[in-house]
Description:
Blueprint: H1 22-28, H2 31-34, H3 38-54, H4 60-79, H5 92-104, H6 117-153, E1 158-163, E2 166-172, H7 173-197, E3 200-201, H8 217-223, E4 228-229, H9 233-238, H10 241-268, E5 275-276, H11 295-318, H12 332-355, E6 358-359, H13 361-367, H14 375-384, H15 389-405, H16 415-421, H17 434-439, H18 449-467
Parallel strand pairs: 3-4
Antiparallel strand pairs: 1-2, 5-6
Helix pairs in contact: 3-4, 3-6, 6-7, 6-12, 6-18, 7-10, 7-18, 10-11, 10-12, 11-12, 14-15
The structure holds arginine.
Amino acid sequence: MSNADDKRGGLWGARFDGGPGDALRWIGDSLIFDERLAEHDLIGCIAHVRMLGAQGIIPKGDARKIGAELKRMLREVIKGELRPIDDDDEDVHGWIERVLTERVGEAGARLHTARSRNDQVATAFRLYLRSETQLVLGEIDELQDALVDQAENVRGVVVPAYTHLQRGQPVLLGHHLLAYAEMLERDRGRFGDQLRRMDECPLGSGAATGVPYPVDRDGVAEELGFARPTANSMDTVADRDFAAEWLSAAAILSVHLSRLAEDVCLWASSEWRLLRLGDEVSTGSSIMPQKRNPDGAELVRGKTGRVVGHLTALLTTMKGLPLTYNRDLQEDKEGVFDTIDTLLDTLPMMTATLAYSTFDADAAARLLEGGHLLATELADFLVGKGVPFRHAHEAVGDVIRRCEERGLDLSQLDESDLIALHPRFEGCAGALDFRAAVDRRDHVGGTASKRVAQQIRRWRRRLAKRLA
Length: 468
Ligand code: ARG
């Protein structure tokens, strides 16, 4: 359809003399992006028309004919043989109906009985999100698996744990890596919660108030794999909180990926030199031949901005919309589509970064040499001798002050040096060992080698089930 007049008698019917003007078509046509919903809109159409026939709302013969053709279209769409490449229908729903009617003739005109694009789009969007989310969850599993692999590779490697980006206490590098596995697990849970809340079928809500036909909403919901039909037609066509909730899960996930990316950038920096990025996940410089840059991780960090932006955009679009459907709601899709594309880039990028890079145990040992990392340990040693913690803190603070005056790190002092400063340090040699300090944190959630090994085993069991 190239001529606007051809729209007459189209989706909007006879009261329109011509189609919309150019400005409205430019701003309003969504086929270019909502084409992505074709597969899921067709699935919704198939369930709808089967119900129309079964309930005697349209002639059974027509329902069968329409159903058969919709299934053929679905197969063609999945194979990529049917796409609205040069078609200029307003949206994917209009496109499907037009192609169907061109193929089956008059019967096609019955498909839109007892339905509106408002409940139709709410259904297709949910079906689409439900299936795409599975891809995201699969990528989360892969990243968790890569984190566990690295945690296993670096078994026994101790590094500083930082607070305020200052070296604080010794910790197993594996413990640090597994912290991200936990964050990703909660991200996974947030998507799961969202999917459960979204598990209601909009079809049957019509434009806003329901439909005056004996529809079988339970049957359609069941056929489409929803737990039940939605409970209020106005809510159904007006709200997009399911998309906002999904975007918020995606935004939090992206923030987690961004923090991991930032850690990677620090670890790979000339200052840390803890992580050597593989060729697969680093880039050189066009001018500085020595460079090995973490572009992939930087892009993951950078793309977080757009995902957070999409969440903000949708919330802003929704705020202030009167019930029920308003065309503003068409703005709900592109941000979600872009977020899915983004996550399917950023998650594999972080997985590859971990899989193709190696931690350097010598660099880890060098990092332990500064920062007086065992200061807390020494204070805890005094506590073990009955000194109240505040006083112990004071005594060790004094030791650190002297170290700093002499340009020494606490790790360069031995027991006799310490006893010379304060007799109560007698017997403290055991507190001056990084590995021993780590292993003393032997409780659930602590960094003791035994506990980290337990975490690794737990993750292995959990992921083996999921990745099987
Ligand atoms: N393309 C539209 C959207 O995404 C479909 C629903 C149109 N409904 C309407 N009343 N104009 O929201």
